[in-house]
Amino acid sequence: MTATVEGFLKTGEEYRGSLRDEREVWYRGERVADVTTHHATADAIDLYADLYDQQRAPETAEVLTYAREDGRQVSTCWLVPRTKADLARKRAFTEHVAWHTCGLMGRQPDIIAWTQIGLLAVLPTFRKHSSELAENLARYTTEAQEGNIHLAGVIIEPQGGRARSAMAGEDRAGVLQVVKETREGIVVRGARAVGSYAPQANELLVGGIYFPHVRPDESFWAAIPVNAPGLRLICRETTAAGEGASYDHPLASRGEESDAFVVFHDVLVPWDRVWSLRAPQLHDPALFAQVSRGEHWCGLTRLCVKAEIFAGVAQTLAEVLGLTTIPAIRDAVGKISQYAAILRAGALAAEELASPTEGDVLLPDVVTVRAMRAYALDTYPEIVHALQELCGQGLVMRFSERDFDNPTLAQDLEYYLEHNGVTARQKNLLLNFVWDLTTSAHAGRSALFENVNGLPAYLLRQLLYLEHEPDRQRFKRRVAGIIGLE
Ligand SMILES: Cc1cc2nc3c(=O)[nH]c(=O)nc-3n(C[C@H](O)[C@H](O)[C@H](O)COP(=O)(O)OP(=O)(O)OC[C@H]3O[C@@H](n4cnc5c(N)ncnc54)[C@H](O)[C@@H]3O)c2cc1C
Fold it and tell me: What top-level class would CATH report for the domain 12-286?
């Protein structure tokens, strides 16, 4: 990793350049020659590149970067939080990126940095179980900060034959594992299910959460450059609409994070990129519940911004369609406001109740984050439905820019669809935006992501049952005291 000018901040162009390498990325059966120009990956790379450039822009530098103790400027996404002020800084970063991407990038650039920081937060446990390699974890975190690295992550197994999964039994051939150790490093073989934005990233954080099933050779945490020989990324079909479609698809035309299936064909991982080996305990979901506190809070904060975007859209729709005085509409808009206000309260409460980890990293409160995420996921479909309903016919009866560019058609469209001084063309643009936000394939992928990427609501509640138990016991004793129950 190379340090860049004036501290450690890449420009957008340097970030693009860092992706033009030998990475093996496949899209619809063809090898992608250059992810920075390919239609499935390039537009999102441009969005990320804007964020890199914004690190130096006077109006955004304050949020996106901070001065380290040595005075060098680095990305806030790699700030290791020790105080509440640090957490507030990190929240501001997440919110800025969420507004920039309209909340549709589920794994925005700070989320896997949060996972890496979460691993650092349990460094003493890594030292205990993997003493020879654990220091690499701390060293890499600083290196990633100084390299202004865009880090993706993969921890979940592919959805193949369950008999060949880590949790199944004797057939271990398909399980991601170390097949060789050399002087240079470990050689790994196997696959991981989904690497969101992996084709658009510099490196991949690789691990797993399959303790107690995982065997020693299948236990490692490491970071692997996306261009490592033998690493193959197979992308799903994109839902992005492509450049030039900014009127017809105001959101989908801005690109999207890719999702790639990741195959490791005997990939050499240098020792300095490995932070644990043959330590199955470090793959315990209970440990990951601690590790992922920041990551899930980051996701919650992004959902909070998305809810605020929904609220802003609801207000605009009610005004443009002339519906603001109707009680039923106020109820629908009020429901969206309620959603946004509750998520905001939850994100702030998790920050306020933050506690330090064994590695002295301050992480948001796990119970609050779980409860809020479960609420957010349960309620999300209702909110999307409310927004769709507010649009009435308009969400379906949308027209293309070319229709409005045709004077014959534009005359009809403007005469019948103009509303409250808002031209039909402008109103249609708003509805195109709502389509991309709530109903298109782009919105569908985003909604699926919300529900599946970090445990669905019913699994969050299973964890909440365990994690909230000490509080419930406390409440139980008070209740018993009130009624004199022994
Ligand atoms: C858009 C998207 C992006 C993603 N990005 C990433 C990423 O960047 N990195 C990464 O590592 N992963 C990523 N994931 C993977 C994600 O974490 C998993 O999809 C998720 O953990 C569910 O695992 P699975 O898909 O293997 O479900 P499966 O194990 O195949 O299960 C299918 C369904 O059954 C449920 N289920 C399975 N076992 C049980 C059980 N014992 N009890 C109750 N219910 C059960 C699951 O919750 C799920 O609803 C992404 C997924 C999506 C959809």
Answer: mainly beta
User: Is any ligand 1 atom within 6 A of the Cβ of residue 195?
Assistant: yes
pLDDT in tens, 261-313: 999 999 999 999 999 999 999 999 999 999 999 999 999 999 999 999 999 99
Q: Is 153 touching ligand 1 by the criterion CB < 6 Å?
A: yes
- Taking Cα atoms as reference points, which of 209, 184, 186, 205 lies closest to residue 196? 205
What are the distances in angstroms from CA 79 to CA 56, 89, 170, 209?
17, 9, 43, 25
Measured distance CA(431)–CA(411) in Å, rounded: 19
Query: Residue 230's Cα: distance from chain center in Å?
Result: 26
Enumerate the CATH 2.40.110.10 domain ranges in the chain, comma separated.
12-286
Instruction: Give the homologous superfamily in CATH for domain 292-476.
Output: Butyryl-CoA Dehydrogenase, subunit A, domain 3 (1.20.140.10)
Residue nearest to atom 39 of ligand 1 (CA): 459
Report CA(459)–ligand 1 centroid distance (Å): 11
Contact assessment for residue 185 and residue 271, using Cβ atoms and an 8 Å cutoff: yes
Helical H segments across 276-365, by residue range: 285-291, 293-320, 327-352
The neighbouring-strand residues paired with 27 are 30
Cβ–Cβ < 8 Å for 386, 336: yes
